[in-house]
Amino acid sequence: MSRPSVTSHPYLDELEPYEPPDLRAAAARSGLEPVDLLRLSANENQFGPSPRVAQALADSGEHAFYPNYAPLREAIARYAGVAVERVVLTNGADEAIDLLIRLFAEPGQIVVTCPPTSGMYEFCAKVNRCRVLPVPRQPDFSLDVPAVEQAVHEHAGDVRLLFIASPGNPHGLSVPLRELEWLLDLRIIVAVDEAYIEFGGESAVSLLDDYQNLVVIRTFSKWAGLAGLRLGYALLAPPYASLVERIRAPYNVNSAAVAAGLATLDDLDTVRANVRRLVDERERIRSALARLEWLEPLPSEGNFVLCRVRGGAGSEVAEALALRGILVQAFLGPRMGAYFRFAVGRPEQNDAVLQALATLGPEKEGTEA
After folding, report:
1. Minimal CA–CA distance to 299: which of 311, 287, 291, 309?
2. Pairing of strands 326-327, 304-309
3. CB contact at 8 A, 72 and 261
4. Contact present, 301 and 203 (Cβ < 8 Å)
5. Is the peptide bond before 167 cis (omega within 30 degrees of 0)?
6. Burial 206-216 (b: 16+ CB within 10 A, else e)
7. N or C: which end of the chain has fewer CB within 10 A?
8. Eight-class DSSP state of 84
């Protein structure tokens, strides 16, 4: 007797699953153990979380019970300077992106992105069966505001959301508030992803009272060193916040993340000191790399540096560094093929990157001769 087959929806054929780096394979290629790799490809905070986080996790006896979100929402509200009614906790910033698309866009409607940018906007839009309308950034990676405005007008009624990262990834540039106000006047939902705002740029939170169509997305992954615990939040108008609360999964943020978030916000002096150290190291790295004739390090307001390889491919540099146990992110395509990006680390880690790149210089020049 034949059994019925199960088929998935055709739209899934367009989606590629995310595959994290194979650390064991990378370690084997470089002759190192996985623990000895210098992992700078994912913009993680190399200083790690506040020491109080480990203590809070050790002391917490609440993991057998569902978490109470009220204390963390109140602490985030104080930190961000907003009313608690605006705060929605999410499982990292990625869940916030997905929830916003589910709330504001129907299948077939349009989500606007401004590449190069995070791939999660497009991924979540496609998962929710929405169309994606990319409006590329300018050659200097600044927003093409007139082009965004034109795209919204040309698709009037179908455009539901615009995602803007500020500071953006992979370029590290923030968006001036005057440009955000211009886009907010288009009367669509504008979601500003501030995953890196603690490292630079002017926050859009100051605009929340004036624009009900503004959403600010944030995360503890970068500045607070909690990437593995997946803690994010969205700040938005209270009526919309209550709607997001209706559609999110119950207890979407786990008790360990809640304890870690509270411990972080109770130790801001330590965490902010690490942020300042990362910013100082970022500028030191950029100054050092600017002295290498074959590299062009771009200005950054994130916890990473994007470099253009003059007359070469970023993937070639990434490959050479990987063989030395240093993992960085390269890019593909005509727009970004010459670039690679790496997270700023602790001083000794950054010294290792600078030394490796200085060593690669003569090799690079030799291949071009």
Report:
1. 287
2. unpaired
3. yes
4. no
5. yes
6. ebbeebebbbb
7. N
8. G
304, 369 Cβ separation under 8 angstroms = no
How much is the pLDDT for 368?
42
Closest CA to 262 of 224, 300, 316: 224
CB count in 10 Å sphere of residue 20: 7
Spatial CA neighbour of 42 closest among 281, 216, 303: 303
Please give the backbone phi and psi of residue 235, each rounded to the nearest 5 degrees, phi first. -115, 120
CB neighbourhood size of 50 (10 A):
23
**pTM tops 0.85:** yes
- What lies within 8 Å, CB to CB, of 9 at 6+ separation is none
Residues paired with 339 in a beta bridge: 308
Residue 357 CB neighbour total at 10 angstroms: 23
CB 313 within 8 A of CB 335: no
Cis peptide before 49 (omega within 30 of 0): no
